[in-house]
Structure formats: structure tokens, C-alpha cells
Amino acid sequence: MSDPAPFAVATAFGYLLERLVAFHRRFAAATSTASVTISAQNFPVTELGQHHELVEAGTECEMDLLTIAERAVRWGLNLRGVRSRWLATSLGRVHVYDGAGRGSLPTIVVLHGIGSAATAYAPVVRRLQQHARRVIAPENLGHGFSDKPKHLDVETMFAATREALDELLEEPAVLFGNSLGGAVAIRYALERPERVRGLILSSPAGAVMTDDELRDLLASFPSAPTRAEGERFMARLYHQVPRGAGLFAQDVARIFDRPAVKGFFASITTGSGFSPEELSGLQAPILLLWGRSDRLMPRSGLDYFRAHLPPGTVVVEPEDFGHCPYLEQPARLAQYIVSGSMSVL
What does DSSP say about strands 82-89 and 92-100: parallel, antiparallel, or unpaired? Predict the structure, then answer.
């Protein structure tokens, strides 16, 4: 069973905020004034119960529920002792969740994918804290609470995260990465092998693709900031789309309309993947997870990694994992990460 807690919280916030917006729309109509804009910037959940600010009338009423939910989850993580930190890199500020753990496993780093954020891994981070000495979850440039440059490409994103990890890590760590986060983990392991004790990869990006495969993959992402495009994309992400996810469909689509994210996609080529020699040269033990319900990444990616990762790589294909098991199956995903981390001791 998937953990419904994040979706229940998100849905509850979404319902309350929709009711608030509806109230102000009715009020504006009754008083013959323009509607009021309420946004995440003006209604910070981290200060919920202290104040909220209604901005100048005369603007269209809008609401980014995803940003509100992210702020709510960050607030919850902070209350649980997971700090929010901003690290200055040569390419921009990188936001990081940094939490002390209660276990004996080495530091675990959680790396998210394109269009996602570390906040989405909160249920996984909370579970990993029970087993590891420390859990770190950085957010790529252009994502979450990290800086959002106007231009972003593959090398810039990798370099910023590398600088952040170089500063953060006090011991060799186990790196977990999903999708693009998997490619970031592989790149870091290639460039800093002495800092990596193990790799746990979930449907990682980075396999060499044909022109057709790359074109089909890029076409899977939202092409416009609309709810319809967001819903189309989310249907490919999940094993089973959770109830309430539709509230965030348009907000998800808007992420892919950001100049930084568009620039990142434009920088991807068929030559962006890892060569067979690079993959076979990885030194750390590797656990590769690839959900049988993954409808986003081409299946040829699994074949490529299976063929070129070092001998001894453990490959698992969970039946009910889609592309984002951290959302649908956080408890089971955390178990895989813990078991993979134990194998490197």
C-alpha cells in the first residue's frame, strides 16, 4: 500500500485554499470590486497562524497550490529537526534539507529528478532518518527553493550539485537518485569516487538514446502550462495516479514552462548519456531499481544499464513501481534504500 499522508495533506491544503479563493471571488462580486490575488508568496504556510497578506485589488485571482504544499512540507520537516540550508556555489544558491539521523548507517544523500524537488521525498527522508547517521537532500538549481537562473544546462546543474555535496559531505555517503537524480549520482560517483560508498539508482537518466528515443522522451513532458498537459504527464509518472493529484496538475505543468527547465531540456542530446566505459568503471556497489510500471523512461534504458554497469550490480524490477516510487511507495522505497545501504557496510 502507498503512504497516502502527503496526498492527504496536500489535498487538505488545496481544499482550504480553494475555499479561500472562492470566498474572495464572491466578496469581490458582491462589492463590485476586482478579485484578489492570493499567492504562496503572500500567504506563507511557514507562518500560518501568524499573518497573511492580501495584495492590491485589481489583479486576477491566482493560486499556486504546489508551492503552498511545498512550503507546508518544508515547515513539517523543519519541525522534525530537518534543517533548511542554502549553500552558495559558483553557479547559484543550492537549497538543502539536512537532517541528523538516529541510526548507524552512513550518510544517505537523496537526489531528485527534473521538475521535482527534495520536498517530495519528505516521507522517504523521515524513514531514512531512523536508520542513517545523517540524511541530506539537495535541490537542483531551478527547482524547489534553490536559485532559479534564467538559463540552465546539464553541465551547470551537475556542477552546482557537485559543489554543494563537496561542502556537505563529511564522510563517504550512499547516494540515492531517481530519474535525473540517478544521473547526478552517477556523475558524482565518477568524479568523486572516494566520497561514494554506494549507489542506489531508481529509473536513472543517463542511458545513451537514439534520436527517436530522445524525441519521444522529451515529448512526454508538458508542452504548455495547462492542467490538461499536467494530467497527461502525471498519468505517465505513476503506477496509479493518486486521488487529489489533479489539484496540482497545472502547477506541475508550469514547472516545465520555466526558462531554466526549458534550457535544460534544450541542452540534452543523444551524446549526453554515459558511455559503456564510464558505467563499467564505477567503483561503488550498485542497486538498480526499475519499476515495471515506469511509463516515462524508455525500456531500452534499463537494458543499457544492465549491459554496462559493473558485474555485481543488483537489478530489481518492482511490479507496482512507476517512475516516482517516492510518491506512491515511500515505505517500500525507503526499505530498498536501507537494505542497499546495509550492503555496503
Answer: antiparallel
